[in-house]
Amino acid sequence: MANESFFNQAISSWMNQNGPDSDIVLSSRVRLARNLEHYLFPTLSTNEQALEVVGLFKDKFTTASHPNRNLQLLEMGNLKPLEKRVLVEKHLISPQLAEESNFGACLLSENEEISIMVNEEDHLRIQCLFPGLQLSSALQEANELDDWIEQYVDYAFDEQIGYLTSCPTNVGTGLRASVMMHLPALVMTRQINRIIPAINQLGLVVRGTYGEGSEALGNIFQVSNQITLGKSEEDIVDDLNSVVQQIITQERSARDALIKTSNLELEDRVFRSYGTLLYSRIIESKEASQCLSDVRLGIDLGYIKDVPRSILNELMVITQPGFLQQYAGGALRPDERDVRRASLIRECLTLRKSNHTNVEGDE
């Protein structure tokens, strides 16, 4: 039976930890694409062949012991649609694996720092998530997992090209490194409109909260590499890290500029959003995301002192449609979700505000 915490806990335990530059960088992710030798790639395989690959991993990795991790296999065909949606909203699996395949699976670590997707676009997508800007640590973890898996299976590999993948853009290292960044000041000052094209010219790409084709809800952007061939994994990560550091500097400069030129207006915006979250009885997902972004900025700038930043990470997940319905125990109409979303936000903010105040008082 699947561990219920994967579906019932909004926040992964690794998200409760602070990482470098975590006021702007929410998380760092490294993902390695791998395929098995002597098996048709998932884009060409039959359902029977896909199930054979899942069976292989079920046999190998539910009995093999990783030196530091206890991984649990979740088969997509055994999960309810809402459970799959929750995993997507927590960034543990991709929308493609959730929507297109009942013949895939994922291996998850207890703290949800590790997610290994089976039969997505490739046989394997090895993913490691870390809080803050920790791309090098995420790469090290992913490489250790990669080496561990390769003890039991043979990868499709070419000596000249590198790792072979379903999509040509992943050939070579098979590496996608990305960071999730909260960039409200760059959005407010409209500098983001010139920064995104500049980033694209550097061989990187800026996407929305849930990757390709998604919207940047709550001013959260995903910045990742596009080039996987002709560079080492370390060079790819170093290049991305360098660009992210520049974006961090520009976001902080934009925040300082807003404080100097529009401090009262900015403070008013923050507290209006805070009031909306505290007292609304109905709130849509997009409005909730924007208000949560404003409140997070207010916490980072010191306007709001009685709410912990971690509550914003939790609310970003708990207010999404899938988790709301999972929490409710069944499907909800859009208007019912808006009512429940408002109720959950009020309850969480009131409870955490009270606990935060009590802890400070004890100290």
Automatic annotation (TrEMBL):
SUPFAM superfamilies: Glutamine synthetase/guanido kinase (SSF55931). It catalyses: L-arginyl-[protein] + ATP = N(omega)-phospho-L-arginyl-[protein] + ADP + H(+). InterPro entries: Arg_Kinase (IPR023660), ATP-guanido_PTrfase (IPR000749), ATP-guanido_PTrfase_AS (IPR022415), ATP-guanido_PTrfase_cat (IPR022414), Gln_synth/guanido_kin_cat_dom (IPR014746). Its EC number is 2.7.14.1. A motif (RDXXRA motif of the pArg binding pocket involved in allosteric regulation) lies at residues 337-342. ATP binds at residues 27-31, 91, 125, 176-180, 207-212. Appears to be allosterically activated by the binding of pArg-containing polypeptides to the pArg-binding pocket localized in the C-terminal domain of McsB. Residues 24-254 form the Phosphagen kinase C-terminal domain. One of its GO terms (molecular function) is protein arginine kinase activity. It is an enzyme of class 2 (transferase). It comes from the Bacteria. PROSITE patterns: PHOSPHAGEN_KINASE, PHOSPHAGEN_KINASE_C. Gene3D superfamilies: Glutamine synthetase/guanido kinase, catalytic domain. Keywords: Allosteric enzyme, ATP-binding, Kinase, Nucleotide-binding, Transferase. PANTHER family: ARGININE KINASE 1-RELATED (PTHR11547:SF38), ARGININE OR CREATINE KINASE (PTHR11547). Belongs to the ATP:guanido phosphotransferase family. NCBIfam families: PRK01059.1-4 (NF002194), PRK01059.1-5 (NF002195). Catalyzes the specific phosphorylation of arginine residues in a large number of proteins. Is part of the bacterial stress response system. Protein arginine phosphorylation has a physiologically important role and is involved in the regulation of many critical cellular processes, such as protein homeostasis, motility, competence, and stringent and stress responses, by regulating gene expression and protein activity. This is Protein-arginine kinase. It comes from Bacillus songklensis.
